[in-house]
Design goal:
By secondary structure, the protein is an alpha/beta fold. The protein folds into 2 domains: 7-152 and 296-354, Alpha-Beta Complex (Quinone Oxidoreductase, Chain A, domain 1); 162-292, NAD(P)-binding Rossmann-like Domain (Rossmann fold), CATH 3.40.50. The chain contains 11 helices and 18 strands. It has helices spanning 47-54, 99-102, 143-146, 149-160, 178-189, 202-210, 224-231, 247-256, 277-285, 306-315, 334-343, and strands at 7-15, 18-25, 33-42, 61-62, 66-74, 86-89, 92-93, 113-114, 126-130, 134-136, 170-174, 194-199, 215-218, 237-242, 257-265, 289-292, 325-330, 350-354. Helix 1 packs across helix 11 (334-343), helix 4 (149-160) crosses helix 5 and helix 7 (224-231) packs parallel to helix 8 (247-256). The two termini are 13 Å apart. The model has no long low-confidence stretch (mean pLDDT 96). The protein binds zinc ion (2 copies).
């Protein structure tokens, strides 16, 4: 492996299913941007279909949007940041000109760029990012943890869509993957009195229990709607978070929510859902609030957004994401790890790539 100052190692996606570890030109930061030496980059669930099924917007691309590292160099006009600073990066590059951007809703930007899908991301030793997308990693938070800020922010955003007043509430979560487990951790940190997690994979159920969640239920053995009814004296859950994305779980979430409760749609839908008319009637009569959630809210001034909140919660240990890491591989092993995820050949929760 050759490495000079002008090249770097990167996992380059050339076509669907064709990713190769190569020496490529190390990018240089333009005005207002920095070069980040990547410490760790998480493999997102979305990176698997992106790599093996759908492809990226153009080829070749370097994927990877969940990362943290240290600033190597700053481009022109960058103020407030210097080489050696530990950072994580909001990977969505907003246009700044459309109506949602005007309101700070960058995830809704009409004309955005994205590190790791539309532009080169962090399955590489280095990546260029705009300085306005940087967040400082607080002391006591490792780069491994900071690399999970993106999914943690997504999970927090989902719960904040309900208004976020979870003290004493019952929260049911379908899907015990990394995002579902992070939702459950946030619910605990936000004061929920009851957290019920549902999955159908024995290893995931076991893993969730090992993280200290008591009510982790195998949906194949116990009907989630009945489990929630008996746990809530027949009232239903205050908040139902659908993080599995399959029709049956969406129907269960709608059935199990209490009057005036909240159903949050978080899982990417795997198929069409047919809602029985009586269920729609019940949801109407109960005045159920159905919320969509998308990505996360970021503010570069750090004004109560999901990203800065996630880093603060990691620093204060209100949430602990380290326990979610099941695999840590070098760049050389990254594609193999992604194949393992695609084929489900091993149990995994969060898979991190060590980039340097
Ligand atoms: Zn992601
Ligand atoms: Zn915009």
């Amino acid at each position: 492996m050759t490495r000079t100052d002008s090249t770097m190692q990167a996992l380059v996606l050339h076509a669907v299913g064709d990713a190769r570890l190569e020496a490529v030109a190390r990018p240089t930061p333009g005005d207002g941007a920095v070069l980040v030496r990547v410490g760790y980059c998480g493999v997102c669930g979305s990176d698997i279909p992106r790599t093996f099924v759908k492809g990226t917007y153009s080829f070749p691309t370097i994927c990877g949007h969940e990362f943290a590292g240290t600033i190597e160099t700053c481009g022109g006009g960058v103020e407030g940041w210097s080489a050696g600073d530990r950072v994580t990066v909001f990977p969505l590059i907003w246009c700044g000109k459309c109506p949602p951007c005007e309101q700070g809703s960058y995830a809704q930007c009409h004309k955005y760029d994205y590190l790791g899908s539309r532009s080169d991301g962090a399955f590489a030793q280095y990546v260029v990012a705009p300085a306005r997308n940087l967040l400082s990693v607080p002391e006591g938070v490792s780069l491994q943890e900071a690399a999970m800020t993106e999914p943690a922010a997504v999970a927090l955003h989902a719960l904040r869509r309900t208004g976020g007043a979870l003290v004493g509430q019952s929260v049911a979560v379908w899907g015990a993957g990394p995002i579902g487990l992070m939702v459950a951790q946030w619910a605990r940190a936000m004061g929920a009195s009851q957290i019920l997690l549902f999955d159908v994979v024995a290893k995931k159920i076991e893993f969730a229990r090992s993280l200290g969640f008591e009510n982790v239920i195998d949906s194949r053995q116990h009907d989630p709607v009945e489990a929630i009814e008996s746990a809530t004296q027949g009232q239903g859950a205050d908040v139902c978070v659908e993080a599995a994305g399959v029709p049956v779980t969406m129907i269960q979430a709608l059935k199990a929510v209490r009057s005036s409760g909240e159903v949050v749609l978080l899982g990417n839908p795997a198929a069409d859902v047919t809602l029985p008319a009586p269920l729609i009637s019940t949801a109407m009569r109960r005045e159920v609030n159905i919320r969509g959630t998308w990505n996360s809210r970021y503010s570069f001034t750090g004004d109560g957004d999901d990203w800065h909140a996630a880093l603060k919660a990691m620093a204060s240990k209100a949430i602990d994401l380290k326990g979610l890491i099941t695999h840590e591989v070098a760049l050389e092993g990254a594609f193999g790890a992604m194949q393992m995820m695609k084929e489900n050949s091993e149990f995994y929760c969060k898979v991190l790539i060590r980039a340097n």
